[in-house]
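User: I'm preparing a small set of examples for a lab meeting where we compare how different chains pack in three dimensions. I only have the primary sequence for this one, and I'd like the structure in token form so I can line it up with the others. Please keep the answer compact; I'll paste it straight into my notes.
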Amino acid sequence: MTPTLTTPHTAATAAPTLAPREQEALRHIAAGHTYHQTARHMGLSTHTVDAYLRRIRAKLNINTTAEMTRMAIALGL
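Assistant: Understood. Below is the structure token output for the 77-residue chain.
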């Protein structure tokens, strides 16, 4: 039995749901930056970055950083 891979969402349905700052945070995390690096670059606290990423996970129904990275690629971020 082989596992089936599915795409969690399409870019067309996910793009309008993210605020600009959430998109920016997602772009940084997908590029491999840490929460601290992302916060420093965006001029925020790490707690705010964490809140943005929790909202992204909830809105897009994803759980892992790998899924966030895949979504960032799909969204063209």
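A couple of notes for your slides: The chain is about 65% helix and 0% strand. Confidence is low (pLDDT under 50) at residues 10-15.

User: Perfect, thanks.
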